[in-house]
Amino acid sequence: MAGHSHWAQVKHKKAILDKKRSQLMGKLINAILIAAKENPNPETNPKLKNAIERAKDFGVSQETIERNIKKAQGLLEETKIEEIILEAYAPGGIAILIKCLTDNKNRTIGEVKRILNKYEGKLAEPGSVMWLFEEKGVLILNKANFKEEIVEKYTEYLQDFQEKEDEIVLFTKVENLFELKNILEKENIQILSTEIQFVPKNYVNIENKELESKINNLIEELLDNPDVHEVFTNTK
Questions:
Q1: In 3D, which of 135, 199, 222, 194 has the Cα closest to residue 2?
Q2: Are 99 and 229 in contact (CB under 8 A)?
Q3: Are 169 and 151 a contacting pair, CB within 8 Å?
Q4: What is this structure's pTM?
Q5: Read out DSSP for 43-99?
Q6: How much is the pLDDT for 57?
Q7: Structural domain of residue 54, as residue ranges?
Q8: Residue in 157, 161, 186 with CA at minimum distance from that of residue 174
Q9: Could you give the 3-state DSSP secondary structure of residue 210?
């Protein structure tokens, strides 16, 4: 069970049904709209650059990307999409952040609340869950061609790293994400994924298989909602 972003679960499922693929395209475009409102230049806006890279991964055209950056700046028709981050608890007290991109805040909150109730979860007060996470840049690398000296060589960029079975996960500040990516690519390090995630400060282990299954089902149903863009938990 992934402890931070559940986007990766979607990214590796390329054979998506037409309906889900269409829904995913909408989420990818909305992410560009939100990120470009702040700053339309991907070279100085890592969130926009990340949104564009994700969109390109799934075949969104450059023309569509550029049109939606203009929409975000009000140069074409006005966009009503806004980002809201809902804080919640799953069964077992597991902390959840639910990032939503929506044109109807009340509808989205109502739908998220309904899904949480179905799985014995509940919305939390603003601030009661957010403090358990930190927003970071995350690079997932192929362990096979990773050089350990990289960690020492670029300590000024790295906040932390985790070693997994066949991957290395590096954590950096959001603003350093793509600079570090470029450095690693020059070192011929294979980068599997570049993400901006809410990473838990401390992780919780789930021992109970029934509880783990219920939380996984909750997350899957949340992600099936067209307004829910990402879900983060503090589980390992």
A1: 199
A2: yes
A3: no
A4: 0.86
A5: TT-HHHHHHHHHHHHTT--HHHHHHHHHHHTTSSSPP--EEEEEEEE-GGG-EEEEE
A6: 86
A7: 7-72
A8: 157
A9: helix
Same domain, 114 and 222: yes
CB count, 10 Å around CB of 42?
Answer: 20
pLDDT in tens, 67-89: 999 988 887 677 788 999 999 99
Domain holding 150: CATH number?
A: 3.30.70.980
Claim to verify: residue 13 and residue 68 sit in the same structural domain: yes
* Cβ–Cβ under 8 Å, residues 33 and 80: no
- The residue with tokens 């970071």 is 136
Q: Report how far apart, in Å, the C-alpha atoms of 180 and of each of 23, 32, 112, 121, 189 are.
A: 31, 22, 35, 38, 11
Tell me the three state secondary structure of residue 100.
strand
Residue 101 C-beta-side C-alpha neighbours within 13 Å: 20
Rounded to whole angstroms, how far apart are CA atoms 46 and 32? Answer: 11
Strands 82-89 vs 122-123: parallel, antiparallel or unpaired: antiparallel
3-state secondary structure at position 15? coil
The first and second tokens of residue 9, run together, are 């679960």
One domain for residues 46 and 143: no
Contact between 52 and 64 (Cβ < 8 Å): no
| Residues 84, 102: Cα–Cα separation, whole Å | 8
Q: Give backbone dihedrals phi and psi of 120, rounded to 5 degrees, phi first.
A: 65, 30
- The token pair at 25 is 């395209």
In tens, the pLDDT along 207-222 reads 899 999 999 999 999 9
